[in-house]
Amino acid sequence: MRILAIETATSLGSVALLQDSETVAVISEFVPRRHLEWLAPALQRLLGSAGWTVAQVEAVAVSTGPGSFTSLRIGIATASAWARARGIPAAGVPTLAAVALGTQAAGAVCAMMDVRRGEVAAAVYAGGGAARPIVDEVVGPVERVLRQLPAGPLTFSGDALAGYAEVIAGMRPDAVLAPRAQWYPTAVSVGRLGWERLSRGEHNDLYRLWPRYVRSPVDQA
């Protein structure tokens, strides 16, 4: 299955083409507050680099949040429009799962995103490329969230590390902090997680494919 994947939850805009779970082409660029003007030209460049036509795309995968209110809407609206126009399925993917999948860790990964106003959203996933949820999403001040996580070694990843790395290290001495390059969800991870859903016959109702905001909408990217 030829899949178009779109990730716009953070300031890193990312689009990818996959053949099943294998990456064919990818474009990732930091575009803070510029997702609207960036996305359509990026998709055009992406298709051209792979030699694909619009008609050859058979499914769409898109990040659904948490993330920036405006940029998430842009990505999801674009994915829905592609799917409706072509009559193809679309699979929404949790942004925290995409963060976890893109983090290189043998053990469990805590994906943590800054949702502003002094709060973070976090979830724990199996490592080693699985992104299987171990602890469901928790939202709140970072100290409270950290106290709700399971004991034992965790690799932390996600854009919340930019503001809370010292707090994490102070409360979790056994924590491993992922390199900054792995903090951001990418379209490749979204596409692979989307493929897992699509291969099981799962997809979203295009009129109910909405962003997931863990709190009142606030622009972040």
TrEMBL record:
Which Gene3D superfamilies does this one have? 3.30.420.40
GO cellular component, as recorded: cytosol
Name under which the protein is recorded: tRNA (Adenosine(37)-N6)-threonylcarbamoyltransferase complex dimerization subunit type 1 TsaB
Q: Which Pfam families match?
A: TsaD
Q: Which GO terms describe its biological process?
A: tRNA threonylcarbamoyladenosine modification
Q: Which residues form the Gcp-like domain?
A: 28-153
Keywords associated with the record:
Transferase
Q: What is the lineage of its organism?
A: Bacteria, Bacillati, Candidatus Sysuimicrobiota, Candidatus Sysuimicrobiia, Candidatus Sysuimicrobiales
Originating gene: tsaB
Query: This protein's superkingdom?
Result: Bacteria
